[in-house]
């Protein structure tokens, strides 16, 4: 099971500052044009200095934001809500000078709230809507007279003003909720498509690596058999007290391990079920740690649970994934690797901790992606003996391990340890049902 979550629940994409700046320029142009038409086209009297001053404040704010921030700058939700709140207050000030709710442009109170509903969290939209409602209510009672023909006064019935006030309040509520629902559905669809593309890309990488692994195993089989033959001859020809006897024995063991790994790759997922197909979590961890105990790093295993110990199927994918993670921990550890397994009635958790340098900050957020490696120069000091230097990896092993473990139902988490302890920490969390599902007999 692969985690398809692109964004955490309740989070939304941040809006670009350039978008709000352009919308405000549009509002400034519209307001200025309306003022010119009313004053010089229709000849209605207006407090021009005050009105132009309020419009100029919006223009100055736009120029300041443009000079200070880059066009691609994305604002926090709080900053975006503050700018939209300024637009509400600026519109309320203009309407106060030009007739309040008697002014037909009072409907523009809906614009900032609708923008907020499409781009900001519901809480911010609620606050902005409350501000617009408060401004509308104040303008229903306090405002300057509506600009009208000189010598004549237009007086609208109070019932009509109440109707306008009520229509704006209902419009704020209905359009805000409607815009949020439509935008939220579009966001969910976009997230689902992005998650689908991500999963397909990961599966494509893994499918390609399946073929490469099979080809590599086939090609490496012959030279590895030759190496095993030569090492066997050297082992038999070397006396027990020879100074190179231990090195040849170690080389023989590692050659055997290489052949086992190649055999495991070529038969991944195809082994028939045997009498020991089900193992407990303790047995699982013990088996995957056995090959790592010959490298001089202490491996401590801690297990505890509040329920019966879970069992699982002896799955090659599960074994390979855990073995790769433990291998990485051993490679980077200074002295100790701790494997902590815990379980309850709901879930199964395995934590792998080392006391090494930890994950580099630049790769931590992309850990587990193909061709993103945690290998670095100077990390495997014990392999430099004899002038050998460990080269950096490609990150494919961790990618394959993470994908196989997620297929088994695990949630993969990686972070650096905090507090007095240093090093890396990898956590795998299975729902207990998913961890034990593979061992259940299949019913036709």
Structural overview:
The protein has helices at 17-41, 48-68, 77-97, 110-119, 122-141, 158-237, 245-266, 281-289, 316-332, 361-364, 396-407, 432-437; strands at 278-280, 298-305, 311-313, 336-343, 347-354, 411-416, 424-431. It is elongated and about 120 Å long. By secondary structure, the protein is α+β, with helices and mostly antiparallel strands. The model is unreliable at 1-11, 377-394 and 440-444 (pLDDT under 50). The protein contains 12 helices and 7 strands.
How much of the sequence is in beta strands?
5-15%
Largest sheet, in brief, is: 5 strands, mixed
Strand order of the largest sheet: 2-4-5-7-6
The structure class reads alpha+beta
Q: Whole-number average pLDDT? A: 80
């Amino acid at each position: 099971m692969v985690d398809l979550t692109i964004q955490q629940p309740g989070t939304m994409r941040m809006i670009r500052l350039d978008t709000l700046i352009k919308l405000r320029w549009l509002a400034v142009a519209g307001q200025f044009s309306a003022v010119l038409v009313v004053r010089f086209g229709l000849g209605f009297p207006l407090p021009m200095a005050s009105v132009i001053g309020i419009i100029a404040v919006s223009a100055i704010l736009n120029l300041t934001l443009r000079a200070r921030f880059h066009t691609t700058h994305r604002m926090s939700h709080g900053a975006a809500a503050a700018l939209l709140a300024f637009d509400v207050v600026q519109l309320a000030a203009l309407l106060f000078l030009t007739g309040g709710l008697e002014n037909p442009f009072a409907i523009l109170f809906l614009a900032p709230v609708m923008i907020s509903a499409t781009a900001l969290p519901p809480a911010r939209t609620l606050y902005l809507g409350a501000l617009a409602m408060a401004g509308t209510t104040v303008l229903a009672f306090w405002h300057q007279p509506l600009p009208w023909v000189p010598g004549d006064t237009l007086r609208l019935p109070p019932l009509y003003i109440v109707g306008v006030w009520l229509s704006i309040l209902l419009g704020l509520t209905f359009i805000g909720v409607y815009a949020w629902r439509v935008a939220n559905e579009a966001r969910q669809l976009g997230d689902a498509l992005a998650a689908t593309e991500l999963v397909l890309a990961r599966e494509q990488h893994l499918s390609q690596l399946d073929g490469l692994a099979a080809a590599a195993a086939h090609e490496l089989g012959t030279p590895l058999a030759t190496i095993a033959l030569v090492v066997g001859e050297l082992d038999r020809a070397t006396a027990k007290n020879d100074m190179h006897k231990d090195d040849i024995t170690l080389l023989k063991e590692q050659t055997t391990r290489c052949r086992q790994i190649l055999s495991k790759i070529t038969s991944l997922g195809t082994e028939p079920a045997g009498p020991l197909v089900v193992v407990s979590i303790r047995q699982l961890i013990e088996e995957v740690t056995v090959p790592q105990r010959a490298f001089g790093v202490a491996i401590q295993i801690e297990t505890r649970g509040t329920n019966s110990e879970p069992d699982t199927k002896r799955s090659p994918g599960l074994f390979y994934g855990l073995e790769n993670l433990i291998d990485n921990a051993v490679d980077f550890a200074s002295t100790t690797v701790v494997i902590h397994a815990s379980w309850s009635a709901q879930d199964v958790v395995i934590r792998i901790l080392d006391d090494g340098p930890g994950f580099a900050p630049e790769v931590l957020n992309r850990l587990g992606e193909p061709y993103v490696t945690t290998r670095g120069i100077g990390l495997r000091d014990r392999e430099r003996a004899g002038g050998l230097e460990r080269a950096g990896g490609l990150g494919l092993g961790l990618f394959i391990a993470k994908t196989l473990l997620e297929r088994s139902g695990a949630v993969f988490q990686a972070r650096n340890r905090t507090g007095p302890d240093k090093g890396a920490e990898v956590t795998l969390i299975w729902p207990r049902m998913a961890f034990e599902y593979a061992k259940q007999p299949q019913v036709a």
